[in-house]
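Ticket closed. Logging final result for Protein-glutamate methylesterase/protein-glutamine glutaminase.
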Amino acid sequence: MTAAVTPVEKVRVMIVDDSAVVRGLVTRWLGEQPGFEVVASCRTGRSALAELATAEPHVVVLDIEMPDMDGLTALPLMLKAKPDLAVVMASTLTRRNADVSLRCLALGAADFLAKPGAAIAQDDYRRDLVAKIKVLGEIARRRSAPRAADPRAAALHTIAQAASGRFLRPGPTPPGAPAPGFALKPFSSAPVRALAIGSSTGGPTALAAVLKAIGVDALSRVPILVTQHMPATFTAALAEHLGAVSGRPAREATHGEPIERGVIYVAPGGKHFSVVQSGAALQASIDNGPPENFCKPSVEPMFRSASKVYGSSLLAVVLTGMGADGAAGVRMISGAGGSVMAQDEATSVVWGMPGAAAATGCCSAVLPLPQIGPKIVRLLSGDRA
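Final structure:
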């Protein structure tokens, strides 16, 4: 007798946008994909809140600018009503909306997307939206299921805590779950001359937490190179935000500018960021090459170039994010004698990039987010344990 197969529940999606055209497009896109069900389509944040309990979505695509109640106002109310909800903010590509999107991430939104326009193609938006809903929806679905044991799901509930420094430590390993095991390399014995960080989904909040934990004095000792998957305009807002939380100068990197200690350089959205030797000095190189790993900016050019110029004196960190961007660069850094750390699964919003980095066997540590900043401080101070 053949055992009955329990059907896997579809990812339930709520779309909140004041544009009927946008709601219709997203509904159609998701309807063409297996595994999704659009359970509600709302014009305002207020109507979304009213339908939240009955619709029971796993993921909400939430517009920022809406009449009656905007996304920034609705977001914390939604998360209070349904803490396991994954919310993806959607906004037009303006500096104001970039600032608001970062505030939403700090309040607990899982991710954001810039709407199609002059700088964002509709096909790219569609691909990214479907990919984000698929990954975040699966995590949220597991979290909401009885006796859920997906460690990544807890991160969706603790993003806002990370922003203020109030972290939830990873819980005990669920009964029957395999113990994590990674091949780890010793840290380089060379003094750290540069810190390079790659991140994506959940990254802005994780970046802020790490840089704040490192502190002004330790950050002043080395240049800090950052690639976060973000479109143009958003990266300028991110740089300003990181400067405010870290107490160090922070800006989008510009082509040809010198790389100096104590400055945070953020890869500009839509461009790749590398570090190149120019005589005795090091400079930022910004180029408009093709995407790598479907990403632009990609972590790979930054890691590749930094491994060449800093060698065994480079310390790299891979934080939360979808996909495997940066994994090839991790191997190059390791091959050049540098050191790499990755964020662990339990504190990552999505354990794609750091998981891929850990799987290379080239990392020297795989740590919870609250431990990464203090570990960097010790490494900058000469500790190699």
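Confidence is low (pLDDT under 50) at residues 157-179. No further action required.
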